[in-house]
Amino acid sequence: MKRIETRTLYKEYKKFADQKVTLCGWARTIRDSKNIAFLELNDGAFKSVQVVLEKDKLNNYEEVVKQNVGASFKVEGKLVLTPNAQQPFEINADSVEVLGESSADYPLQKKRHTVEFLRTIPTIRPRGNLFNAVFRIRSVAAYAIHKFFNERGFVYVHTPIITSSDCEGAGDMFQVTTLDVEKVAKEGKVDFKDDFFGKKVSLTVSGQINEEPITHAFGKTYTFGPTFRAENSNTTRHAAEFWMMEPEICFCDLDELMDNEEEMVKYVIRYVMDECHDEIEFLNKFVDTGLVDRLTNVVESEFVRLDYTKAIEMLLKVKDRFVFPVEWGVDLQSEHERYLTEEVYKKPVFLTNYPKDIKAFYMRLNDDGKTVAAVDLLVPGVGELIGGSQREERLEKLLARIHELGLKEEDYSWYIDTRRYGTNVHSGYGLGFERLVMYLTGVQNIRDVQLFPRTVGSIQG
Ligand code: 4AD
Description:
Structural class: alpha+beta
Shape: elongated
Bound molecules: 4-amino-1,4-dioxobutan-2-aminium adenosine-5'-monophosphate
Helix content: 25-40%
Strand order of the largest sheet: 6-10-11-16-15-14-13-12
Number of helices: 14
Number of strands: 16
């Protein structure tokens, strides 16, 4: 008999009432009460199925009930509706085959483990409810992003991982080399002409610089892939390897860009809430009791649009409560962002028009000569979720900024060409995908929304 997946059974269990079904999966728990036992079988879906094992019916009853948690089984039996129980149905087993035993040291036993312990077993932790929920939501959110942009005619482009330019002009890049570093160290000199590409290259910190020229071929594009930052930031929101989703839109100013960001964030939240109802309910119960209210509130509310200068005025009024100083020109710290999003507005805030000195060279200079048309989206609980801007489309202004910052014009020649060949008002942003997953799940640490987190001083697998 062909096996039926648990997710199908939960959708259509009434259709299978009193019929024979075959299921495969792993034991989450096995409870034996002498003549009857209960096997909680999970096949990867969020919900498990209860299988009832009767000693009289199964000739291998003893072999089955002595199995450890984590063992895999094939079960054939009758689906019985259980309208008065927590689960709408159970399986009354006619036969059970042990497919694969599990050692007694299987790490996910009944007791609740700390997330810190679970981080030490990255390959096993997705077999438990918490990480099963988180990583399914991660998958559904990625799909929702693709769906959103494809429905709106964006072209998905794949920008390179290895790059010879530094998008943010900020350093903090992982170098890529095939040179023998020990030999180089002994010789005391390095010549990148001998390296694989004949020049110094790194892992990308953002796809934007490669993407922007391609957007000028399609009108609107997005790239979605891994990015790398060698920042020495050991926080709950920074990873050395993370995924970024970067849309870029021609003939689009800062206001229209914010419209797209707001629509996209709401779309993804709605989609995840619809598709991952059980997972969200679980997270709301065990991880963050305010999750459903918060997500519902975001979908229903209008995001705030606040000028940086105005935000500084607001922060100055309560400056004594902050550890970090507040003054015009500083980059906001997470305590400042939290105050604005969590206390003042209690919803997402677009912070716009930052001082040019704390932002990247490609952002459009405002008429005041001091600020740029940048926008960060700050959200309660996570802080900065998205960073973006209207791009500097005026050739002479872009060149002036490149020179002012001591960047090499020739390193950006094909980027600059877009301003020579049909320049236009255009804008784009980068969404930190892990931060979105944190926001969607209520999980507080970036290490718990990545399968194999890479953070400063820590890597496994
Ligand atoms: O604000 P950032 O640095 O923007 C850029 O890289 C632009 N080139 C994007 C663009 O306009 N196409 O980074 C974008 C987002 C941040 O808002 C944050 O959510 C996330 O990427 N991010 C990180 N996430 C996890 N770990 C880190 N170390 C991150 N650094 C940035």
